[in-house]
Amino acid sequence: MTDMLREPDDATPLSEEDRQGLLLPVLSRAELNRVEAENISQAMSWLFFSRRRLHPESVIREAWLKQLHRRMYGQVWTWAGHYRTTETNLGVPYWQVRIDMRDLEADVRAWLTNASATRYGHDECAVRFGYRLVVIHPFPNGNGRWSRLAADALIVALGGSRFAWGGASLTETGQLRRDYLTALRAADAASDFGPLLAFARS
Q1: Closest Cα to residue 48, out of 24, 73, 28, 68?
Q2: pLDDT digit string (tens) for 31-59?
Q3: Of 24, 140, 155, 197, which has the fewest CB atoms closer than 10 Å, so is most exposed?
């Protein structure tokens, strides 16, 4: 599923289709990345630098995850926080999104409740959570950044430190993004989460 993830081209002008739902007069991919990054920075401040305390049972809930997406993209896109209603080349069929999101919440709750049975440490639980979110691909766009921030929220709620995810923006074309996609493909092809866990902490 993640084999079809494409590397972005910052210089590419946005098409009419690309601009559907934009709240700002953005013309290029580079401008879009910039305004999204500003919105995401505000969401990160809300998430990690306010006095709020994160709880694992909260951050795995469907409603909270939709709110997180809205916080990340609500100043840029009209559809922020709303599930997609069309098919894409990534993710589950759109009509299956809500079902899979609820199944994921139940699965993560079970992982956390029966940690000795699953043998997932906190890092692996959070990374698997983020991976499943990106595979579901519930929103029209922004799923990768949202899923990584959700994984960060879960590991912090579990008492750990945020993931580094390579320490740079994965929206930019380059070796770092290719390493991330390779790690996702290892999880896709062989359920091998070792590379993704290593990348998350790199």
Answers
A1: 68
A2: 998 999 999 999 999 999 877 789 999 99
A3: 24
